[in-house]
Design a protein that fits this description.
Elements lengths: L2 E6 L4 H10 L5 E6 L9 H8 L4 E4 L6 H6 L1 H22 L2 E7 L22 H16 L4 E6 L2 E2 L6 H9 L5 E4 L3 E2 L2 E2 H16 L6 E4 L6 E2 H11 L7 E4 L32 H9 L2 H18 L1
Parallel strand pairs: 1-2, 1-3, 3-4, 4-5, 5-10, 6-9, 7-12
Antiparallel strand pairs: 8-11
């Protein structure tokens, strides 16, 4: 018997990968709705979209962290109120909801990985809006809501740190990169795969509702991530220079240590996600990233001649 899935934000970085992952499942009937086709801030539209689906994966989000600082009400309308609309529609229809959240709900002042039940205290508007969404899921779907926090997400379908580093490598001899922020670079394809597994485990009763941390094992800094990206792309990592966060002042504060623990995966018999460097190695071997790396090498060679 087939299972009906709804993926919101289907044209985004994670949504693309989610649709591709579910397309490999012969028992999945999938509806993918982009932001243009579903505005999750519209409760009536959300109710109509959710109807008839057994699992909803919410990849729709306001992702502009600095923009959220300037427009907190607008960002929270998506990341908080919009998620509440989805949770209410799922509660009314009996659907499960897998909602993607962020490490930014934490203050980032620890020096050990944050467990899933650690106290939340966002340091910026983006984190506050995402926390509002998490609370809506917990309130309205205590037995059918799954919050999956991720961080430092990169992939082929949208701008992200890894692709930006490769693009800049073609135009600049050296790059200054922040070395005092710690996190877990996570490939969108790996996260999509885990969300699909979690959804199936939830349907079978093997995964209790609650919060899970969908980030790579291990952790690193933006500086070391840039260096490893260059190394894997056949570029000289010595071109990356470490700087402090104070060299790049931003409207929104960033947590200094956004590293998450992964204990709750054991509740449904799953291991944590693969290490960040193993994920990066696999991602950069993919055609889209390999093409960026080749272009960076070729453009740099032309600049030096």
């Amino acid at each position: 018997m087939s299972t009906t899935w709804l993926v919101t934000g289907a044209h985004g970085l994670l949504g693309h990968e989610m649709l591709a992952e579910l397309a490999t499942d012969p028992d999945a009937e999938v509806t993918g709705l982009s932001r243009e086709r579903l505005d999750i801030t519209d409760p009536a539209a959300v109710r109509d979209a959710v109807r008839g689906h057994r699992v909803v994966v919410n990849c729709a989000a306001w992702t502009d962290v600095d923009g959220a600082e300037r427009s907190e009400a607008a960002s929270t309308a998506v990341n908080g109120t919009g998620v509440r609309h989805l949770a209410r529609a799922c509660a009314d229809s009996g659907a499960l909801l897998l909602h993607v959240s962020t490490d930014y709900v934490f203050p980032g002042d620890r020096r050990d990985p944050c467990p899933e039940d650690a106290p939340t205290a966002p340091v910026n508007a983006y984190g506050r809006g995402k926390l509002a969404g998490e609370r809506a899921v917990a309130e309205l779907l205590p037995h059918g809501g799954y919050v999956v926090r991720t961080a430092w997400l990169y992939g082929a379908h949208g701008r992200n740190f890894v692709s930006t580093m490769l693009e800049l490598a073609a135009r600049r001899e050296t790059l200054d990169v922040v070395a005092d922020q710690h996190g877990q670079p996570t490939w969108s394809r790996v996260l999509a795969r885990r969300l699909a597994v979690l959804g199936r485990a939830a349907l079978s009763g093997r995964a209790p509702a609650g919060t899970y941390h969908g980030t790579a094992a291990g952790h690193t800094t933006w500086y070391d991530l840039a260096r490893e990206t260059f190394r894997l792309a056949g570029l000289d990592p010595q071109r990356i220079r470490p700087v402090g966060s104070d060299k790049f002042p931003r409207p929104a504060a960033r947590p200094a240590f956004g590293v998450l623990g992964h204990d709750n995966w054991a509740r449904c018999g799953l291991p944590p996600l693969e290490r960040w460097d193993d994920q990066l190695t696999a991602a950069l071997a993919e055609p889209s990233f390999a093409a960026l790396a080749a272009a960076a090498r070729a453009n740099l060679a032309r600049l030096r001649t």
